[in-house]
Structure formats: C-alpha cells, structure tokens
Write a structure and sequence with these properties.
The chain has 17 helices and eleven strands. It has 430 residues and is of the alpha/beta class. It folds into two domains: 280 residues, 3-Layer(aba) Sandwich (Rossmann fold); 122 residues, Rossmann fold (3-Layer(aba) Sandwich). The chain has a seven-stranded mixed sheet with strand order 1-10-9-8-11-3-2. A four-stranded parallel sheet has the order 6-5-4-7, sandwiched between helices. Helix 2 crosses helix 9 and helix 3 crosses helix 13. The radius of gyration is 21 Å and the shape is globular. Bound molecules: pyridoxal-5'-phosphate (PLP). The site of pyridoxal-5'-phosphate has 19 residues, from helix 10 and helix 14.
C-alpha cells in the first residue's frame, strides 16, 4: 500500500497503473460510433454556432483549438526543472477553445446540442436535414425557455453548459462548489443563469442539483459522472487531434510513441479524451493524468479498486486546491473503470508548482493558462528524476526517448478576467 502512504503524506509521485492493457470483463456500453455521431452532430450545428459566436467563423463553426510546439518552455523544463526531455514538447491549447474557454467546451456543448436536437425534432420544430441555423429564431428560443438545464460544477462545466444553454433560450441553474472561482459565478449570472452555491464540496452540489432537477419534469440534469453523450463529446478531441498530427507530419507508431498528459478532476474530460486516443492509436499512445496532492480522487479510486466508493476525505485529505477545476473528492466510477485498461498512470502535483509552471509558460511562450491547466506540465517536469516514471518508460518503450512526442493538454484559461490573471502572475505563492 505504498501509494496510500504517499497520498496521505501529500507527496508528489507517479502512480503506475498495472492494469493497463488488461481486457475488461465489464461492458460499459461504449461504442466508438458514438464519437463519430458526436462529430457529425457538432458539424450540423456549426452554422448555428457561427451565427451566435462569430469568433468561431474562422474554424467554420467548429469549436477546436490549436496544437503547437513550445520550444522555449521546453528549455525552461530542462534548465529549471532538470527534465532532460529530448523529444518534442507540444501544447494542446484548449485554454483558447471558443465559447467556454476550456476543455469543457466540446463535451458540455455537445451534450446540450444533442438534447436540444432531440426535443426540437420530437416537437416538430426541427427536421434532421434542416439547416440548423434556423434554430436561432424567436420561436425556438421561446419554446426552449420552458425547459431548465441544471448542472453541478466546480466552474468550467457550468460555464460551458450555462453559456450554450442560455444562448439557446433555456433556463439554467448551476450548482457550484465552494472552490469555484467568484469570477466564474459572476460571468454565469451575467448570462442570466441562476447560480446556487454550496458550503460543501463538489459532490454535494451535484447531489442537490440532481435532486432538484428530478422534481421538475421540464428540467434536464447534466450528469457529469455518468453521461455518455458528455463523454463522447469530450472524445471528439481525439479524432481532431489525429488530423492535426497528420498535418504536422507527426507519426505515431512503436518507434514514435505519443505521451499525453491531461489534468483530471472528476474524470469525464480527460477520460473521454483518453478513450478516444486509445481507440485511434492503441498501444502507441501513453496517457497520463495529473491531480493535485490534496484531491487525487481518480488515483485513489483506481489504485484501491474502490472507484467512487472512496473519497479523498476518507484518507484524511482536505480536497482543497487552487486548481479549482480539479477540486473533486470523489471520482466518476464509470470513467475510473473505463480507465483501468487504458490509462498508463497518474502524477500528483503540489499547488505551488501550478503557479510556477503558469508563470514559466507565460514568460517563455506568452500563453496564459489557468491554475488547473498548468498541472499538465508535471509529467515532463518530473521525467528525469522520477524513478517510477523512468521505469515505466524502460518497460514500455522500445525506442530512444528522443523519439517520444509529448503533448501537454492545457485545459483552460482564456475566459479568466485580466485583473485575475495579473493577480495570479504577480502573486508570490504562499
Ligand atoms: C474540468 C476541468 C478539468 C478536468 O476535467 P474533469 O472532467 O473534471 O476530470 C481539467 N482542467 C480544467 C481547466 C477543467 O475545467
């Protein structure tokens, strides 16, 4: 139970998932067709998205981010953190995703668009083959205003769901945990969403939201832990990343493995991306999550095999972290079980380093990302001095380390207001 002591001591470490590659006996009801369907439906809604969010016109109404090499940050990783990283280092910039400014844009927006399509078709306000920009009408807006969308959120899922839902005309109630940043609550209210705050953690907010929603027949609850549509929406990122890598002439095979590092909260967003990437690249992609030392819920759930039947509070941790998007005490059981055979391992990170990496990236590449997103650097920063990570590489990689392409998934940032950015960047960490 070495991992348990490390978790209790709030150590930074790499936990290797020894179940990787095992065939799962469980049937999760997942089918990659669901990811292709999500991509198709998002394309059908693209004319509507362009009409309402003109900033998406340059990508034809598809909400997608760029991937780019970050050579200056790589230099910092090697000089300041002694990473010894020799492969290429890329940043997948979901921090700049249109509409919601975070990784939650793909999943959250797809979930709501799919639901919208269903109720509009059912009520004969839309036909499958219509031009979907038609739904930007007063008639549809008034019809949808009879319905309420509810969601529990640490912040960014609420923003994603809230912004798209209000734009369509729905009423919106977002149940927020105590860690959620004030500016996220303010922004949601400015869109006309109702924000209810909870003293307890994220789990409490979700529980209460679900209950209130069940009491109202015209209410739809977005289930962050179990929704397949949300999961498929997140997984769309993998199809698009494959295209982007092709365009960059980045090969992914046994001689050129791909390492991907993704910040993890409840597990839905990183889990969806991981599922998609594994379907596409198989054994040649190695996926790592990163969690704060104070709320390593996915690591605890997977390593113990207890998944959502154990929380970080059960082992004496506070769950408190400045990475507000990752402040989750109990993981999604569905995602954890799917990850058992897919995920290579999980890194933990102390809050202090979130701010170091955030400042380093800003000063070296002029890219601003939020604290949660900055955790994505942890794997590469610890590449050289983490013996367990080096052992994983020795065991699983049959080529020189310089042939590994590293993708750091920057999950959020562009909606952070200027004055808050300044505070983050100037404040010495206490
Ligand atoms: C939500 C979020 C994550 C993690 O996603 P989960 O689905 O909660 O695991 C990571 N980074 C940011 C910025 C987020 O908002």
């Amino acid at each position: 139970m070495e991992y348990l002591n490390k978790l209790k001591n709030k150590e930074e470490f790499f936990w290797e998932n020894l179940k990787l590659g095992n065939k799962s006996e469980e049937d999760f009801g997942l089918n990659f067709e669901g990811v292709y369907e999500a991509e198709e439906i998002l394309k059908k809604f693209a004319p509507f998205i362009m009409k309402k969010f003109p900033e998406t016109i340059k990508r034809d109404g598809i909400i997608e981010s760029k991937i780019s090499e970050i050579p200056n940050m790589k230099k910092i990783l090697n000089e300041k953190y002694q990473s010894n990283v020799s492969g290429k280092v890329f940043l997948k910039q979901d921090n700049e995703l249109a509409v919601a400014g975070s990784v939650k844009a793909r999943g959250g927006i797809y979930e709501i668009l799919k639901y919208t399509k269903e109720i509009l078709v059912e009520n004969k306000l839309l036909e499958e083959n219509d031009d979907y920009s038609l739904i930007a009408s007063r008639e549809v807006n008034e019809f949808l205003s009879k319905y309420t969308i509810q969601v529990g959120s640490t912040g960014n899922l609420g923003l994603s769901i809230g912004i798209i839902s209000r734009t369509l005309g729905f009423k919106v109630v977002v149940h927020m945990s105590r860690d959620a940043a004030q500016w996220k609550k303010d922004l949601l209210r400015s869109y006309g969403a109702e924000v209810i705050e909870y003293e307890g953690d994220y789990g409490k907010a979700v529980e209460r939201g679900r209950k209130l929603s069940e009491e109202n027949t015209y209410s739809y609850f977005v289930d962050d832990e179990n929704s397949k549509n949300l999961f498929y929406g997140y997984a769309v990122a993998a199809i698009r990343l494959k295209k982007q890598l092709d365009e960059l002439n980045i090969i992914v095979d046994e001689k050129n493995p791909l390492f991907v590092y993704i910040p993890c909260g409840v597990g839905g967003a990183p889990g969806g991306i991981a599922y998609g990437l594994k379907e596409i690249f198989g054994e040649d992609v190695h996926i790592f999550f990163v969690e704060p030392t104070n709320s390593p819920c996915m690591l605890l759930g997977m390593a113990s095999g207890k998944h959502r039947d154990i929380s970080v509070f059960d082992i004496g941790l506070t769950g408190l972290t400045l990475a507000d998007g990752l402040a989750v005490g109990r993981p999604s059981g569905f995602v954890g079980r799917v990850m058992d055979s897919i995920l290579s391992g999980i890194f933990t990170i102390e809050d202090k380093y979130l701010f170091d990496y955030m400042k380093d990236l800003y000063s070296s590449e002029n890219i601003f990302i939020e604290p949660s997103a900055a955790s994505c650097f942890q794997g590469v920063a610890r590449l050289y001095d983490d013996i367990d990570f080096q052992n994983y590489i020795k065991k699983n990689i049959k080529t020189e380390q310089k042939n590994i392409n590293h993708i750091l998934w920057s999950t959020g940032g562009s909606l952070v207001p200027m004055e808050i950015r300044k505070k983050y960047l100037e404040k010495p960490f206490k």
